[in-house]
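ZP: hey, is the iron/sulfur cluster complex queued? I don't see it on the tracker
AM: it wasn't, my bad. submitting now with these inputs:
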Amino acid sequence: DEDERTDRIEAAKRELGDDLVILGHNYQRREIVEHADFVGDSYQLSVEAANADAEYVVFGGVTFMAESADIITDDDQTVILPSMEASCPMAGMAEALQVDAAWAEITNAAPDAEIIPITYMNSYADLKAFCAEQGGAVCTSSNAHEVFEWAFDRGDKVLFLPDKHLGENTAHRLGMGDDIAEWDPWDPEGKSAEEVADSDIVLWDGYCQVHERFRVDHVERIRDEHPDAKVVVHPECRREVVEAADEAGSTATITRTVEDADPGETWAIGTEIHLTNHLQRWHPEVNVLPLCGEACMDCNAMRQIDPNYLTWVLEELVAGRERNVIEVAPREAELANVAMERMLEI
Ligand code: 13P
Ligand code: SF4
């Protein structure tokens, strides 16, 4: 039962002491975040990983986050993901080989332009490495606009991967909402190439299946049912949803919005349901509502980190066995680190 499991996790943590740090993304289940030393958004967790001294970094999150932690930690530190099944579908929507092929077409479409590729943190290490090689960088939802500005100081166009919604929302934030092309790799008529030539921001056709499900109807329904409610959403939501909301930002921004709310205020949250539930628990003085109550706002990838698996990897470490180690190949890690360091410097 949960009490027994809690005792076992805490006993393993005591045994491992300073050799262990547990990082938990805001979308993790309650039974994971309760045991984490740091809980935060993708950016905060990458900073925590970079600063961690512990020999073992156990990551409550998805594969691309654990890969990033491996890249950013020292060689003698080991990153462990409690379930190898925790893969973000969006990260899989831009495979480095496929992007490499598209890059040749995109650069041909605008031969005189300096194109800077920027990849969202939600991508695999080989794509981050590709971006580094082409003079680009990584960004997260909390710094996308700053990384875009950095890119436009260096080049004429940005290719943003994989999340078209974050790309579009960032373009609007920079006043470049009319300057967008969507890259369609299966476009037989070559229209994408024409659009690339005419636009400064080129978006890869990827999306988050959780955030894409939020609709303007959900915002309207909340405003009808709770006229005093304000709405905060994640920028992986569609453009029209972000426009209809009062605020938009990373999971850390959403968390801060509720933290800073006055007692009795009502906030509807448009993001993965576990964070909404945490915010309800952490801030009982604020009226926290899910923007959409449907169960589909649950991220399957994040859910793979079962507390039983956390117990297992910790007890195995106590027994001297390293399970589910995430290790990025050295050359790829070196390049991907360049792209991530660029973000951290920006
Ligand atoms: P942030 O925590 O950076 O806002 O990212 C959200 C997300 O979807 C991670 O998968
Ligand atoms: Fe990927 Fe979306 Fe899940 Fe984040 S919430 S891990 S982007 S599928």
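AM: back. The two ends are 46 Å apart (CA to CA).
ZP: great, adding it to the tracker
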